[in-house]
Design goal:
Elements: H1 3-9, E1 16-19, H2 25-36, E2 40-45, H3 49-61, E3 66-70, H4 76-90, E4 95-98, H5 113-137, E5 143-147, H6 161-181, E6 187-193, H7 208-213, H8 223-235, E7 243-246
Helix pairs in contact: 2-3, 2-8, 4-5, 5-6
Length: 252
């Protein structure tokens, strides 16, 4: 195999990535995809220690290094500490995937102050603090990729006010980071998944038919389809401050 072919097949060879919330769903699929591209990978988890261990074993089976770190993105110290720990355990940090998130859905008048605090702590503050910590340790060519939601572009029905608000904040964060870090060659982008078949939102769940119906393709996506776009951005040099919809035409 030529050097060109090796580079094309392992575009992240020698890089280290951290995927928050990487024990299942989009996070786990992303960790595995980045490993296939050549990256060593750290994943965070809160309650899914066993699932995180499975991801680590799968990454190692691909010949890459891997570590699982327990970190609650809603805890200010742990959100930033996970970045420091990943860089320490794997020697550096080149890619941060802000995937950890929570969703509290329901009529706006039913949401408690505790609901608001938790969603904003995980979905907004935790992403900001992790991104700030990553920017402090990333070399030139670093990548910050955040997982948003199709609901920042189109909210098809009631009940998503708090979740949509929290994820919309990440669009502004991404654009500002792109400007602030561009001079250092660090890019920042955001990926908006549509309905995706995961444990949290299964394609055969009670509300799945309605979600699929509002997409142009009429189906749920897979975690692997989202991971493909994230992996592309992890290797892209001239893309920053951008939003990418992986939503089956939800926003069309």
């Amino acid at each position: 195999m030529s050097n060109f072919e090796q580079a094309a097949g392992n575009s992240l060879l020698g890089k280290v990535a951290l995927v928050t919330g990487g024990s299942r769903g989009i996070g786990a699929a992303t960790a595995l995809r980045l490993a296939r591209e050549g990256a060593d990978v750290a994943v965070t988890y809160v309650n899914g220690e066993e699932a995180a261990g499975e991801v680590v074993r799968a990454v190692r089976a691909l010949g890459r290094r891997a570590v699982a770190l327990r970190a609650d993105a809603g805890d200010a110290e742990e959100a930033a500490g996970a970045v420091t720990a990943a860089a320490r355990e794997l020697g550096r940090l080149d890619v941060l995937v802000n995937n950890a998130g929570v969703g509290v859905l329901g009529p706006v008048e039913s949401l408690s102050p505790a609901d608001v605090d938790r969603v904003l702590a995980v979905n907004v503050r935790g992403v900001f603090l992790a991104s700030r910590a990553a920017a402090a340790v990333m070399p030139r060519g670093g990548r910050i990729i955040t997982v948003g939601t199709c609901m920042t572009q189109r909210v098809p029905g009631p009940g998503g006010t708090l979740y949509a608000m929290s994820k919309s904040a990440l669009v502004g964060l991404t654009r500002a980071l792109a400007r602030e870090l561009g001079g250092r060659g660090i890019t920042a982008n955001i990926v908006h998944p549509g309905p995706v078949d995961t444990d949290m939102n299964p394609a055969d769940g009670p509300h799945a038919a309605g979600q699929a119906a509002v997409t142009a393709l009429g189906r749920f996506g897979t975690a692997q389809e989202v991971a493909e776009t994230i992996a592309h951005l992890a290797g892209a040099d001239y893309v920053t401050g951008a939003e990418f919809s992986v939503d089956g035409g939800h926003a069309a």
